Amino acid sequence: MDFFNLFCLSWLDLLFFLAIGGVIYMKKRSNKAKRAKNGDFKGKKILITGGTSGIGKALAEKFSKLGANVIITGRDDKKLQEVSKTIDKCEGYVLDMENPEEVEKWCENNTKNLGTLDAVIHNAGLSMRDLFMNTEIKLGQRLLNVDFLSIFAMIQGLMGNMRTDEQGSVICGIGSLAGVSGAGVRSMYSAIKGANDAFFKCLACEIRDKNIHSMIVHPGYIQTNVSQNALVGDGQKSFGKTDSNIKNGLPVEDCVNQIIDSIVLRKTEVWVCKGFGMKILMFISKIFPSFLDYGLYKNLNQQLSALKKAS
Ligand SMILES: NC(=O)c1ccc[n+]([C@@H]2O[C@H](COP(=O)([O-])OP(=O)(O)OC[C@H]3O[C@@H](n4cnc5c(N)ncnc54)[C@H](OP(=O)(O)O)[C@@H]3O)[C@@H](O)[C@H]2O)c1
């Protein structure tokens, strides 16, 4: 007995059910899209680390426009004051993330002031631009502290501040597509961002019962100062230039719109980049890992030429 006889179905019945399924799916998608566009953050309290430049600053500006009370952090008090002055309902807190133990203390000292948080976006981060053979352990240690251990410490330290009522809250990591696929001249950075990817997923299952949603956003090339500030060699110096990949990347405003929509929709893992090409390549490489090996080998020349064209 074949499938159709077993369930007394014809091809037409099957097509009918598929069409109904398609309509329901499209309807749900369009509701979701509407919900994202109309995301209302009035009165919500949102903490964004690294809110003094690039993605963090643009997130703070956008959340404030959507009605949120925004808290931003950064290392430089002067820069923090300058930025928070330009954003409505924005407060700046000095926080250096080089030392995870200091981050633990910062959380203890500020628990009361911060109050109940609706979302924390762990955005502060440092990148690198150097070949594996030129990358010293010291650089790795700095990246590990800023890009992973301090985030870990901060999430533990602020867990008691997260909203756990029926509205719930969101803990959002900012990873990198380099942490999903790997990338030339960013070996240590990619490894640490990959650790974030796994960490935010582990966290999700442990805090789900508390109505706290853990998610990670992986940006591709976004037009910010990330490569200017990226470390080289022993981690004491910055690259100091904008490489051409970043220069031609996605405008930061488009990036934050996608991040905010994905927070509204409580997505789990989000890839944010210019066009579909990179996403399709990443998707194919998940299915055919050897394609990824070859792609990254080819991409290395492109990365090196982007560094040469840096200005
Ligand atoms: N732009 C991209 O193409 C791209 C791609 C993938 C992932 N990302 C990720 O996106 C996040 C934001 O980067 P961005 O592109 O906006 O770069 P950015 O313009 O360089 O901003 C980095 C932010 O992190 C803060 N920060 C750096 N080191 C810190 C430290 N030791 N302690 C505390 N804060 C520190 C900086 O604040 P202060 O200097 O004021 O302290 C600044 O606000 C990072 O996690 C980055 O890895 C960016």
UniProtKB/TrEMBL annotation:
SUPFAM superfamilies: NAD(P)-binding Rossmann-fold domains. The keyword Isomerase does not apply. GO terms for cellular component: membrane. The chain crosses the membrane at residues 6-26. One of its GO terms (molecular function) is oxidoreductase activity. InterPro entries: NAD(P)-bd_dom_sf, SDR_fam. It comes from the Eukaryota. It holds the Pfam family adh_short. Keywords: Membrane, Oxidoreductase, Transmembrane, Transmembrane helix. PANTHER family: DEHYDROGENASE/REDUCTASE SDR FAMILY MEMBER 7B (PTHR44196), DEHYDROGENASE_REDUCTASE SDR FAMILY MEMBER 7B (PTHR44196:SF1). Belongs to the short-chain dehydrogenases/reductases (SDR) family. This is Uncharacterized protein. The lineage of its organism: Eukaryota, Sar, Alveolata, Ciliophora, Intramacronucleata.
